[in-house]
Structure formats: C-alpha cells, structure tokens
Amino acid sequence: MRAETFLRNGCLVLVAAWLGACGGGGGDGPTGGAGTTGGAGTTGVAGTSGGAGTIGTGAAGDAGNAGTTGGGGTTGSAGTTGAAGTTGNAGTTGGAGTTGSAGTTGAAGRGGTTGAAGRGGTGGTGGAAGRGGTGGTAGTGGGAAGSGGMLASNSLAVRFANAVMTRWPDPNNIAGQLPGWEYNHGIVLRGIEQVWRHTNDARYLMYIQRFTDEYVSANGTVTISDPANHSFDNLQPSIFLPLLYQQTNMAKYKTAADSIRARYDTIPRGPSRGFWHKQTYPNQMWLDSIYMGEPFLMRYAALGTCGTYCTDTVFEQTLLIAQHVRDTSTGLLYHAWDDSASMKAAWANATTGRSPSVWGRALGWYAMSLVDLLPDLPAGTQRDQLLAILQGLAMGLKNTQDATTGLWYQVVDQGSMSTNWLESSGSGMFVYALKVGVTRGYLDASYLPVAQKGWTGMMSKVTGSTGNMPSITGAVKGMGVQNNYAAYVATTLMPLLTDSPHGLCSILLAASEMEAQ
C-alpha cells in the first residue's frame, strides 16, 4: 500500500558483549555464556571480576556451563576473595553451580525480561536457556517469536537476511526506499529481527540499531516522517525502541518510546473510537493499521510503564475492526471499514461501511498481529475473542489455499476468478501466522500441513535459492483500499515485484519460523 507506504562503530563491542548476556529470551548460543571470563575454571581465580558486571555474564550457554571447569569442582570456583582454596567452595559470586547452567526449558518468560543474567553477572537461577532451551525468543514482548529453535547458517532465512545487509549496507536504503522513519524500512527490519531471534547473531541487531539511531537522537528525540500528520505507516518502526532499550539499557530508547506512546493520545478516532489509519482518511480503520500500530503498545507494556492503557487499547482496536469487517461465515476479514455517519469513502458499503474485498496482504497483516499480540495479552473474555477470530481466520485460509501451489490469491476468497492471481507477500504472512499459531497452541496440529504447503509455494517464488543472494518474487506493490474486486486485480498492478519491502518482510518471517530447528 502507498498508504501501507548499530550502535555506531564505537558501540559495537558493547552490543556484542551484551547480547551474550541477554540472549533475547531464547538460546544464547556460543556467544551467550560467561566463557573464559566467567567462573574460576581450573585456575580457580576469578575474584570480584568473575562476573560480567553491569552487562552480565549472560546465560550459561554452550561455552559457559559450569560443567567440570566452571563450577565449584575439585579446583573450586572463585569466591568473593578470588581464591578457589582447597575446599572448592564457590563464593557468593562464583561461577554458576548446578542451578546456573542452561536448562532445557529456558527462562524467557512472557517478555524475556528474566532471560538475562542479573546485574551481578552470575548465571544463577535467572540464567537464560542454553542452545537447547525452549524458552523461546520472545525478547521484549509483543510475542515476536514462534518456535524456540535455531536457524542453520545455510538456511534460507539467514541467507535472505545476509543478502539484505549486503545489497543495502545502509538500512536507510533498504529495497531502494527513500530514507525515513516509516514502515517500508521497518517491516524488512522486523524480518531481520526474527532471524536475530533464531540465531543470536549480533550483526542483525546492530543493523536494526543503525537504522534506529539515524532517527533517535542522544536525548531520545525521534525524527518521524511527517510528524504533523498522523499515519500508522510512520509509527511502525517504533517497535524497535522497547527492544533496543532492553537490549542496551540506553536511556534514549526509553525516552523515545515514551514519546511515541504519548502520540497515541493524539491519534484521531472515529465515532466508535477506532483509530484513523491516516490523517487523510477520516474515520477509516484498516487491517494494515493493526500491524503498524498495536505491536508497539504490547512491547512498550513490557517496560512496565503503560498501566492498563496498552492492553486496553490493543483489545479495543483489534476487536473493533474485526467486529465490522469479519465475515463470520468464512472467518475471513475484509480490508477496511469507514465509520463515518455520512459521506463515506467510495469503497465503503453505504450501510455497513465495509470495504468490498478480502485483500490478501491486509489479511496477512492482521493474522500476524494476532499471533504476535496474543502471548502478552491478559487472559479473559477479550483474549478469548481474539483467539476465536484467529482460529476462524485459519479455517478460512485453509479453505482458500490454492490446491496446486499452496499459495493464496490476491483477493483471497475469489480464487475461481480467471482474472485473479497468486501473490507471495500475503502468502508468506499466512505461513508465518499459521506456523506460529500451531507452535504456540493457538491452532490445532491440522494447520501445520497448511503452513508447510504454503511454505513450499513460497520457495517456488524464490530465485537464487541455492546461492548467497536469494530474491523473492511475486509481491504486489503497495496499495490502499480499492473500490471493487476489479481494482484489486487490475493489470496496472503488474508486473509483480522482486525484493520489494513487503516480499522481503514476508519471506524473512516465514522462513525464520519454518526453518528453525
């Protein structure tokens, strides 16, 4: 849609060291453990420097488990005086004992806030799960993880992430976009983030931080594209602010996140309290808006300074639009809704205000929102309603999946129309949502073959899949709400795009979840 439309070099060492500490809530891999600087090891001398100080020692990880070298064995862990002694008693800050090594269950928690070792730097009982941990990679909340597995270095997800950073070393130029704090950059970086969560490779987080630091000053001021006029498209990259604050503890990211949260108080609302998608679209709610705006609120809520506003708003907005655009007979949702009492948009039904078509990518935005939001929403009737919407949507996707390719059509429920065509970006989003939904138990196992078939279809849209610079084809350009079916499938939308922001976002997210082991 048009309407859809790191630390710098001096800080790199800090980020790399820190990432070993935090592990994103999931497995910390070979960089996560205290390593040779953690416990006293065979030398038994760690003293007060045994811990990692304020950036932590990270999880016990592959290289940091207490084992025979790190725990208080026959050579002893370092006590507070640093001498192992002949008795081998571990001091209060010694290496992680039998409770500090990485367990098989991890400790990501719902927001990943317990995943990192404490400020004392000891693994302790708060250590993050090791490589085998199943704590997931929820990180800062917002449910941005599916399975807790790791991606192989030769996986398609990793190769796509590497290709993005090779083609566009400056993230401001991703996919040939003009620089700006807006969604075309943010959605690709969101895909990069998912690869980071399944690899713990600091390069990916640094790439996200490099983009963010172009727009967030040292005092936390965010330079938003067109700040005078509201647009959810220009708020979407804000999801990285809570993430970077929790990963770096740099106050500027919290300040910036606070300022974005405050902007929500000024977003114009329709008569039913629905947020406008853009200043230029009075009273219009789009499915796109949910993905662009609500995940930030859930990530911000994880910082503990939002009260009930964040969860209340997520429930309100996500349920409100579903109430007006959901087809209860199919489970599918139409693109948008106009809440104007009169003078509705040309595409809006005069009575219901609903748009005329089920557009694939808009439905994909909403489906991904649900699986990313649900993990952190409090139990209750409203959460149950969202879960039922997801389950109905999944049924609708199962029923409309192309039997031959596994992909979905541009207008999802009109596959029998000869003028309709298969589209990759929406399809990849459905694959992501279905796979994460099954992994988290929101959807039953019968939907895994649907996701797998969709993934097979997505791979058919990848060129150079055996090399280091793959590309994703078959994504429609950005577009707004259309007046009718014919406009959604117009020949003017051709040719479909290669390596567009939407295509890259969907393949990165889908591949991250389908390939993680």
Fold blueprint:
Elements: H1 12-22, H2 61-64, H3 67-70, H4 156-167, H5 183-197, H6 202-213, H7 240-248, H8 251-263, E1 284-286, H9 287-301, H10 309-325, E2 336-338, H11 360-373, H12 381-400, E3 408-409, E4 422-423, H13 424-439, H14 448-459, E5 462-463, E6 471-472, H15 485-488, H16 501-515
Helix pairs in contact: 4-16, 5-6, 5-16, 7-8, 9-10, 9-11, 10-12, 11-13, 13-14, 13-16, 14-16
The count of strands amounts to 6
By secondary-structure content and strand pairing, the structural class works out as mainly alpha
- Biggest sheet record: 2 strands, antiparallel
Number of helices: 16
Order of strands, main sheet, comes to 1-2
Notable characteristics:
two-stranded antiparallel sheet, mainly alpha, two-stranded antiparallel ribbon, disordered N terminus, 517 residues
